[in-house]
Design a protein that fits this description.
The complex is a heterodimer of chains A (569) and B (337). By secondary structure, chain A is an alpha/beta fold. Chain A has 21 helices and 20 strands. In chain A, strands 4-3-5-16-8 form a five-stranded mixed β-sheet, covered by helices on one side. Chain A has a four-stranded mixed β-sheet with strand order 10-13-9-14, sandwiched between helices. In chain A, a hairpin with a 2-residue loop joins β17 and β18. The relative contact order of chain A is 0.21. The N terminus of chain A is likely disordered. Chain B has a single domain, classed as MetI-like fold. In chain B, α5 packs across α10, α6 packs across α10 and α12 runs antiparallel to α16. Classes of the chains: A alpha/beta (569), B mainly alpha (337). At the A-B interface, α3, α4 and α11 of A face α9, α13 and α15 of B.
Chain lengths: 569, 337
């Protein structure tokens, strides 16, 4: 619903907030090494590496499974648990830290907790080191990063989401400012840190820049995508519609018309444009009918999507606040029933959502449409995101012994669901941050302010693969896990999947896609609101192409050719 | 009449300066005495000079030092090379800027929005100040002043939210109209045609009261004896207003008008940025938001800096030009000539 300004058009910040992260099921094997990533030993530094080189850089995946999930992973969907394990397993036998003191910065969308709070103290005691994380406001995190990088004021450990890496020219940042973790973690070396080894290799791939491993992954998931389409199941029931069957964009339009009633202060839709790349199938980069490389902005699908959105807005089906770009109240408006159908990341579907929604509206029930196609025929497709966008990095100034201490700490932080360590990091101290109930651990008021499952701080440094568990709301877990199992099969890897491409400085302006990405200040948004025409849109695209866009495309064609060559080699 | 309103307090000060220059002329014999004279003046004024020091430091640190960064407008700035090592590109950024239709669009938007705001907003605090000044009950005056001043302390985020709650498509007014059978009520918040008036009314609501303060101060400086004398001579309310009150406000009005022109190109960044999505860049993109979008958001710092530098230089020209015009008309302007 609320797209954070300046983010990649695809990446909802909620995408990651899946209630809890934890043990990976061995079933979630990652079929993505074929796609290549990292950096090239090739002449042009593009980021493409051969499969064998990648194999040498990437930490080898060593699955760990403490608890058997109730909903195992299917085609990469996150494993889900209905109950909390009664017996927790200790995965780290020794105190990981050796008394070191480290600073960290992570983004936070919410109230910033006070420094050195009881939860931090408990975690630091268990770590045997002082890791003081200062969360910074997520809404302007993208604008403080350049200052930290250019002024060389980086903390010891920092979260840099990959969708905010392009303006930082990150290949250069990594080489000049960040510690290379390849010598510590590549291949079998990761096995000294079993919890780090249990993170999917695809997660680690997100932290590879120009042939070297720099980043720790957080919230890694095999089936990772930007948006899904949610609806208020209880409202549709009340209106006598029941479980809707939406198989095409026309079905969606008809359903929207049926539930729309502005006089009763009920609008059918939020601004769902962010989701429409699924039915109209336009990934970031694709090949056109003739086999030429095009960006999503040149695709016929995006034009149809704009036209559809414009039609819906004109028909009065979209909530006025969403039309006006006031996304701030989006969640409240969904809870109060002013909006029936919205798009959001997979992380929106959790216990906290159910709790808040039911507080506003007793029968509140969130449900999600299965993926569909625009025409209603053919198999739905969903272009996948990299296994994670959440990557954290170490400062280059750290000594090897400090890096080793941090890796041991990281091994603690990456402990999976069902472990003692995971329990501490997500729920804190019994009696202070949470109370144990029959339904599982319930956060107290203190816990809601500080504990990891409510406030991501340590979890943004490194955390285990995603799992789904919603304390006290097993029905939410059931619905979302079943949805994931049903829909994961539609996911496909788009071009340049899992590849951190390093664009030359001269192309970085075109690579920022400025006319298209800023929330509420981009041309697609204008067309959808009827203030610009498709012709205006096309001239904006032509303008972008003239001002470096064509060169950028040529560069990416080179990357593609190189990938093909290396892949076949 | 007009002269009587000029602040009398400045007169003796002017005399001091005058007599000072006499001393200077007399003592201008040798270089040694000149140095002594400089030293004497420094000693004489040291208290005043020390008092200005914090303000000067503040200005140097936050006003002048960051200006060094403007060199990036002439560079292809790279975060990691800094402006010491980034390659020079001459005027390339400006060339691109002046050929960018979006830039010119935001430039004209800035001028259009500013002219409307200036024309409609500027007289409001003057009228309000005169009105408040004419209230006899001090208590009532205090209450009204507090009420109209309060919104100044709200941020634009809050102001826009309040406006949206009342005038937005799902706001109080439209909800009321819909429940009374109006199917598609007017949405003030998203209409590009009336946007100029919307932002002006927001400004009046937020700043109208606060801006009266300086006028009220000027009004209180007008001697009551003038009003009494005029009343005795038989002048009615309107004549007193025209010949005593308004001339009394003239100096400060001109000063504020000039200063406002200086802000004309930088005004309303927050207000516009928040409402950009509602009416679109076609109406609400101003130079500051353009610079923010291309510089900070897209990471094209050099381009953003070029737009910013253009803005700064144009603002200075506007201020100096307006000041010159004020002097031509015999006003004080920013400083006395």
């Amino acid at each position: 619903m609320k797209v954070v300004a300046d983010m990649s058009p695809r990446m909802s910040r909620r995408g990651f907030l899946t209630a809890t992260a934890g043990a990976a099921s061995a079933a979630a094997a990652q079929p993505l090494l074929a796609a290549c990533g990292g950096g090239g030993g090739a002449p042009a530094k593009t980021g493409a590496a051969s499969t064998s080189l990648l194999q040498r850089i990437l930490p080898h995946y060593q699955p760990s499974s403490l608890v058997k999930p109730d909903y195992p992973s299917v085609n990469g969907s996150s494993p889900a648990y209905l109950t909390y394990p009664s017996r927790l397993v200790k995965t780290v036998s020794e105190v990981p830290g050796s008394g070191g003191s480290y600073t960290g910065i992570t983004p936070l969308w919410g109230t910033i907790p006070s420094a050195n709070n009881p939860f931090d103290q408990a975690v630091n005691k268990a770590l045997g080191a002082t890791v003081s994380v200062s969360p910074a406001n997520g809404n302007n995190y993208a604008t403080i990063l350049p200052q930290l990088f250019s002024g060389n004021k980086l903390p010891d450990w920092i979260q840099v989401p990959t969708f905010w890496a392009p303006p930082l020219n990150f290949g250069e940042a990594a080489a000049t400012r960040l510690a290379d973790l390849t010598p510590y973690l590549a291949g079998d070396k990761v096995k000294q840190y079993p919890n780090l080894a249990a993170i999917f290799a695809s997660g680690w791939q997100a932290g590879i820049w120009d042939d070297k491993l720099y980043g720790f992954p957080s919230y890694t998931a095999g089936f990772n995508f930007g948006y899904q389409l949610y609806y208020r199941a209880d409202l549709l029931d009340k209106l006598g519609i029941g479980t809707p069957s939406v198989k095409s964009m026309n079905d969606l339009f008809d359903l929207a018309k049926e539930v729309n009633d502005p006089a009763a202060k009920r609008w059918a839709l939020g601004d769902i444009f962010g989701y429409l790349y699924q039915p109209f199938d336009y990934p970031n980069w694709m090949l056109d009918d003739k086999g030429h490389l095009i960006t999503q902005y040149e695709s016929p699908g995006i034009i149809e999507a704009m036209n559809w959105m414009a039609k819906a807005i004109k028909a009065g089906l979209v909530h006025p606040d969403q039309v006006a770009g006031n996304y701030g109240n989006g969640v409240t408006e969904f809870y109060s029933g002013q909006m029936v159908i919205v798009s959001d990341g997979s992380g929106a579907w959790n216990a906290a959502d159910a709790q808040k929604g039911q507080a506003a509206n007793k029968g509140y029930k969130r449900a999600s449409f299965d993926f569909f196609t625009d025409s209603g025929s053919g198999t739905p497709r969903m272009s996948l995101e990299a296994a994670t966008a959440w990557t954290s990095y170490l400062n280059k100034r750290l000594s090897p012994s400090q890096i080793q201490e941090i890796l041991r700490i990281g091994n603690y932080l990456a402990a999976p669901f069902g472990s003692v360590e995971y329990h501490l990091l997500n729920y804190g101290v019994a009696g202070v941050d949470y109370t144990m109930t029959a339904a599982g651990p319930q956060l107290t008021a203190t816990g809601t302010k500080y504990a990891g499952s409510a406030v991501s701080t340590y979890n943004f440094l490194v955390s285990p693969n995603n799992t789904v568990y919603n304390a006290g709301y097993p029905e939410v877990t059931k619905a979302s896990a079943a949805w994931g199992q049903r829909n994961a099969k539609y996911g496909y890897q788009p071009l340049f999947y899992e590849l951190n491409v390093t664009v030359p400085n001269s192309l970085s302006n075109a690579n920022a896609f400025t006319p298209f990405v800023q929330a509420g200040n981009n041309i697609m948004y204008e067309v959808a609101r009827g203030r610009a025409t498709i012709a205006d849109y096309q001239s904006t695209v032509a303008n972008w192409k003239r001002n470096g866009g064509n060169k950028l495309k040529t560069f990416y064609e080179g990357v593609l050719a190189q990938q093909k060559k290396l892949g076949s080699a | 009449m007009t002269d009587a309103a000029a602040p009398t307090a400045s007169r003796p000060r002017a005399n001091v300066v005058g007599s000072d220059s006499v001393i200077i002329a007399a003592a201008d014999a040798t270089a040694g005495s000149r140095r002594r004279r400089w030293w004497t003046r420094l000693r004489r004024d040291r208290t005043l000079l020390i008092m200005t020091l914090p303000a000067l430091v503040l200005l140097a640190v936050f006003g002048y030092a960051p200006m060094l960064g403007l060199v990036m407008a002439f560079q292809d700035y790279d975060l990691y090379d800094g402006f010491l090592h980034s390659p020079w590109v001459g005027l390339a950024n400006f060339q691109q800027l002046f050929t960018d239709p979006e830039f010119w669009h935001s430039f004209w938007n800035t001028l259009a929005l500013f002219s409307v705001q200036l024309a409609l907003f500027f007289p409001v605090p003057i009228a309000l100040a005169i009105l408040l000044d004419s209230l006899l009950s001090r208590r009532l005056r205090g209450v009204i002043q507090a009420v109209v001043t309060l919104p100044h302390f709200f941020s634009f985020v809050l102001v826009v939210t309040i406006f949206n709650e009342v005038f937005g498509g799902a706001g109080l007014l439209d909800t009321f109209l819909r429940s009374h059978g109006v199917t598609s009520p007017f949405d003030f918040m998203t209409d590009p045609g009336t946007f100029k008036f919307l932002v002006t009314s927001q400004l009046i609501w937020k700043e109208g009261g606060w801006s009266t303060i300086v006028y009220l101060a000027a009004l209180s400086a007008i001697s009551p004896a003038l009003y009494e004398a005029a009343a005795v001579d038989g002048a009615g309310y309107w004549r007193r207003l025209r010949h005593i009150t308004l001339p009394g406000l003239q100096g400060i009005t001109v000063l504020l008008l000039i200063l406002n022109l200086g802000y004309s190109l930088t005004f309303g960044f927050e207000q516009m940025l928040i409402q950009l999505p509602a009416v679109g860049p076609g109406t609400a993109q101003v130079i500051t938001t353009f610079s923010y979008k291309n510089g900070i958001v897209a990471g094209n710092y050099s381009y953003g800096a070029a737009a910013g530098l253009f803005l700064g230089i144009t603002s200075v020209i506007l201020i100096l030009g307006a000041n010159k015009v004020a002097h031509l008309f015999g006003e004080d302007g920013l400083y006395r000539k």
